[in-house]
Design goal:
This protein has 642 residues and is an alpha/beta fold. Helices cover 48% and strands 9% of the residues. The protein contains 23 helices and twelve strands. The strands form two sheets. The chain has a ten-stranded mixed sheet, with helices on both faces. The chain has a two-stranded antiparallel sheet with strand order 1-2. The chain is elongated.
Length: 642
C-alpha cells in the first residue's frame, strides 16, 4: 500500500508493516515488565536504604509506563493486522496510535536518564535492585537507539514532495501543472538516487566514466520506481505471491500445453558437441574470477594450493606474461585451467567502470586462443551492469567467402557481465576473424537488438541454468515484473503479514502453492485494476503506453535480447530447496529466447547464476550424457539426461 504519511511527509513504511516489529517489541517489553514487577515485589522490603524511596518510586513509575507502552504496542499490532495491502481503510487509526507511541518515548528517555543518574550517584541499596536498575536503563537506551535507526532507514527523502497529493495522483491539477510536477519529482528522485549511489560507491574514484555511470544508474532507478507508491515489504509480498502463482500455473499445466520451439535437426545434432565445449570453456570463464572464486570453491585446500604463488616471487615467469595486478590470481588461474605459464599471453585484473579484467591463453587441447572476460565481482562491475543505455554497433555483416590459413581459432568466453562483454566483442571481431566463436555463460538478456540476436546465432552459444534471473533480466522484463506484482497484490485479499509468513514457509519447506487467481497470464495488463490505482504514484503513465512513459520509449530503452543460440540446463528430480550441491540430474535442450521473456521467482533464481553452481551442473550433465551415450535419444527438441 502507499507509504504512511506522518508529520506531513511520506515514509517508506506502510501501516501493515508493524506486525512483526510490534510483536518483537511486545515480547521484549512483556519480559521486561515481568522482570521489573518481580524485582519490585521480591525486593520492596529491602528499599529502606538511603535513596530507597527514589528507587521504589522509579520502579513503580517504570511498571506503569511499561504497561501503557505494552497496551499501545498491542493496539498497533492489532490494527496493523487488519485490512489488505490495497485496502488500508481498517487501519486508518494507525497514524494516531503511532503519534501516541512516539510521544511515550519522551517519558521513557527521561526515566532512563534519571535511572542512570541515580545509579551514578551510588544509591546504597540491595545489589540485586541496583543491577536490575542498570539492566533497565541499558534496555531502555537500546530500544530508543534501535527506534532511531529504524526511523533513519524508513525516512524517504522525497516524502515531503509526495505527501501533499493523494496516491492516485494530483487530478485537481491541469495537464501542464501535472506534467511539471512529474518532471520535478523525477528530477528530485534522480538526484536522490545519485547521492545514494555515490555514497555506496564512495571508494571507487570520481573519473568521468564513473560520473557518467552514476548518472545513468540513478536515472534508471528513478525511472523504474517513480511511478509506483510501494514500500519494500509490498514488493516482498508481491514476489512471494508471484512465486506461488507461477508454481501453481506450472503444476496445473498439461504436457501438451508446453510450447516447444524446435531448433531443427542440425542444431540438435551438435547439442552434445556444444555442451562439451561449454563444459571445457567454462573453466576459463571461472578462472577469470581469480583467487576469490577458487578459494570459495575449495575452502579447505585452495589456500594451500595457491599460497606459494602468493608469497613467492615469480619475476621470470611473470615476464613471459603481459598484464598487471596479478598477485594471487595467477596461481588460481593455473589450478583452474590446468595450463602452464607459457600458455598465457596476457592476464589483466585492471578493474574500472566499463573496463573488465580478462585473460588471453593458448588452449592446445582445442587448438584455440581463448579470451576469457571476468563477470561481476566489484562495485565498478555493478555500475557497468546497471548502465542500461544502448548504442548502435556499426558492423559490416555481409560476409561472403572468407578463407584463412588453418591455425588456432579465436574463442571468447565469459560469465554473467563477462558473457555480455564477450558476446559484444565477438560480434565486433566477426569480420576480421570469421571463425571466431563465443561461449556466453549466464549472459544478461538486455544485450542485443533482435537483428543482432539472430545474426549472432551462427557463432555464439549461450548457456543458462534453471531459473537464473540474469538471462531473464531486461528493462522490458522488469517492467513486466512490476506490473505483475501490482496485479497479484491487487488480486490478493489476505493481510500482508499472512502473505509474508506463508511465503517464508513456502520458500523454506515447499508445499502446495496457494490457489491464487491466474488472470495474470491471460488478462490485459495495459490497464490497472481498481486496487492497483492505489499503488500508482501521481498519475503514473506506466499503463498508458504513450511516448511520455520513459520505459516505453524505444529511443531510450529499446527491447534487447540474449546472444546466440541458447542451451538450457533444467534440474529434474528433487534435491531440496536449498541444495548447494546439486544431487539431481539435468535435462539439456536448445531453447528459444522467448522462453526467457519472463522473470521466474524462486529460491534458485540467484544461486543458479553462481559460477560454481553452474560448473557443478555442467559436470553432472556431461557425465550423465556420457554414461547414457548408448541410450536411444528421445524425440523432441530436448534431450534429457535424467
Amino acid at each position: 500500500m502507499p507509504g504512511m504519511v506522518l508529520f506531513g511527509r511520506r515514509w517508506a513504511i506502510a501501516s501493515d508493516d508493524l506486525v512483526f516489529p510490534g510483536v518483537f517489541e511486545l515480547f521484549v517489553r512483556v519480559l521486561w515488565w515481568i522482570g521489573i514487577l518481580t524485582l519490585y515485589l521480591v525486593h520492596r522490603g529491602k528499599l529502606d536504604c538511603p535513596g530507597g524511596v527514589l528507587l521504589s518510586s522509579y520502579l513503580i513509575v517504570l511498571i506503569i509506563l511499561l504497561a501503557v507502552i505494552i497496551g499501545t504496542v498491542s493496539a498497533i499490532v492489532c490494527v496493523s493486522m487488519k485490512g489488505t495491502i490495497c485496502n488500508p481503510g481498517p487501519r486508518k487509526s494507525m497514524s494516531k496510535l503511532l503519534y501516541v507511541r512516539l510521544a511515550l518515548f519522551l517519558p521513557e528517555v527521561v526515566w532512563a536518564s534519571l535511572g542512570a543518574a541515580w545509579i551514578e550517584d551510588g544509591v546504597q541499596c540491595d545489589r540485586t535492585v541496583g543491577n536490575g536498575i542498570i539492566a533497565t536503563v541499558a534496555v531502555s537506551w537500546i530500544i530508543v537507539a534501535s527506534t532511531a535507526v529504524i526511523i533513519v532507514i524508513v525516512f524517504d527523502p522525497l516524502g515531503g514532495k509526495m505527501a501533499p497529493y493523494p496516491p492516485a495522483g494530483p487530478h485537481h491539477l491541469d495537464s501542464h501543472e501535472s506534467s511539471q510536477l512529474l518532471n520535478g519529482l523525477k528530477t528530485a528522485a534522480t538526484s536522490v538516487w545519485e547521492t545514494r549511489i555515490k555514497f555506496l560507491c564512495c571508494c571507487i574514484g570520481k573519473d568521468d566514466r564513473t560520473r557518467v555511470a552514476f548518472s545513468s544508474t540513478a536515472e534508471l532507478f528513478s525511472t523504474y520506481f517513480s511511478d509506483t507508491d510501494l514500500v519494500p515489504s509490498d514488493i516482498a509480498a508481491g514476489l512471494a505471491l508471484l512465486h506461488q502463482q507461477q508454481d501453481n500455473i506450472r503444476n496445473n499445466q498439461e504436457p501438451d500445453e508446453v510450447v516447444s520451439h524446435s531448433p531443427g535437426s542440425s542444431q540438435e545434432a551438435d547439442l552434445d558437441a556444444e555442451l562439451e565445449n561449454c563444459h571445457h570453456y567454462m573453466q576459463f570463464a571461472a578462472a577469470a574470477y581469480g583467487w576469490p572464486l577458487y578459494i570459495y570453491r575449495n575452502p579447505f585446500t585452495g589456500l594451500c594450493r595457491i599460497g606459494g604463488d602468493c608469497c613467492r616471487s615469480r619475476t621470470t615467469d611473470y615476464d613471459l606474461v603481459g598484464g598487471d595486478q596479478l598477485t594471487c590470481h595467477f596461481g588460481s588461474i593455473l589450478q583452474t585451467t590446468g595450463l602452464q605459464y607459457r600458455d598465457f599471453i596476457h592476464v589483466s585484473f585492471h578493474d574500472k567502470v566499463y573496463e573488465l579484467p580478462f585473460l588471453v591463453a593458448l588452449d592446445h587441447r582445442k587448438e584455440s586462443v581463448v579470451v576469457a572476460v571476468r563477470g561481476t565481482m566489484s562495485l565498478q562491475d555493478i555500475l557497468t551492469d546497471l548502465s542500461a543505455e544502448s548504442e548502435p554497433l556499426d558492423l559490416e555483416c555481409e560476409v561472403q567467402d572468407c578463407w584463412a590459413h588453418k591455425e588456432y581459432r579465436l574463442v571468447i568466453v565469459g560469465h554473467s557481465l563477462g558473457a555480455g562483454a564477450a558476446a559484444l566483442l565477438t560480434i565486433m571481431l566477426r569480420n576480421p576473424y570469421p571463425q571466431v566463436r563465443c561461449y556466453a555463460f549466464s549472459p544478461p538478456r538486455g544485450l542485443l537488438s533482435k537483428s543482432l540476436c539472430e545474426y549472432s546465432k551462427t557463432f555464439i552459444v549461450s548457456l543458462v541454468l534453471g531459473k537464473d534471473v540474469i538471462p531473464r533480466l531486461s528493462l522490458t522484463n522488469l517492467e513486466d515484473l512490476k506490473r505483475r506484482i501490482l496485479r497479484v497484490i491487487a488480486h490478493c485479499n489476505k493481510p500482508k503479514y499472512k502473505i509474508l509468513l506463508r511465503g517464508c514457509w513456502y520458500e523454506l519447506f515447499g508445499g502446495h502453492p496457494e490457489d491464487l487467481p491466474t488472470e495474470l497470464d491471460g488478462g490485459d495488463l495495459t490497464q490497472p485494476l481498481l486496487g492497483e490505482r492505489s499503488l500508482l504514484a501521481h498519475g503514473s503513465p506506466t499503463y498508458s503506453f504513450s511516448s511520455d512513459s520513459p520505459l516505453e520509449s524505444p529511443s531510450k530503452y529499446p527491447p534487447l535480447y540474449p546472444p546466440g543460440r541458447i542451451i538450457h540446463l533444467e534440474e529434474v528430480g528433487t534435491s531440496g530447496r536449498f541444495s548447494c550441491y546439486p544431487a539431481a540430474r539435468y535435462s539439456v535442450k536448445w531453447s528459444h529466447e522467448s522462453e526467457f521473456s519472463k522473470i521466474l521467482i524462486g529460491p534458485k533464481m540467484l544461486t543458479d547464476h553462481m559460477p560454481d553452481i553452474l560448473m557443478r551442473a555442467l559436470d553432472s550433465a556431461v557425465s550423465d550424457r556420457a554414461a547414457c551415450v548408448s541410450c536411444p535419444t528421445q524425440g523432441g527438441s530436448s534431450v534429457d539426461v535424467a
